[in-house]
Write a structure and sequence with these properties.
This protein is mostly helical and 115 residues long. 30% of the residues lie in helices and 0% in strands. It contains four helices and no strands. The N and C termini lie far apart (42 Å).
Length: 115
């Protein structure tokens, strides 16, 4: 039985540098835990609806990129690039991570997909 989503869901989807919401419409860790608790209490299979759209900047880059950026929370693409001092390239993204096949902002798709 799931009791905590610490380390699995961010405390907030807000970019820690500029504050932009990188995943509009998604729940924070605390709110997601509350949704799971409610689903358990009501014996429901539906926990929460999570959508990915044109305003979403949810992605996964390789560990070396996170380390180079001093990663310690959510970052929008612009702030990650500012920390790195360069634009992201398709090879920076973890190819097999499910986040990297989701819709996203135009700049995320341009960096991730090389479009």
């Amino acid at each position: 039985m799931l009791k905590s989503l610490i380390g699995l869901v961010p405390e907030s989807w807000a970019c820690i540098d500029c504050g932009i919401n990188t995943h509009p419409g998604s729940l924070s860790r605390e709110r997601m835990e509350q949704a799971y608790a409610l689903a358990r209490a009501t014996h429901s299979d539906e926990v929460a609806t999570i959508t990915f759209g044109k305003n979403t900047e949810v992605y996964m880059v390789k560990d070396a990129i996170w380390k180079a950026a001093g990663m310690d929370g959510c970052l929008c693409i612009g702030c990650l690039e500012k920390r790195l001092g360069r634009l992201l390239r398709p090879k920076d993204f973890s190819r097999n991570h499910s986040f990297n096949s989701m819709p996203g902002t135009e700049r995320l798709r341009a960096r991730r997909d090389g479009a």
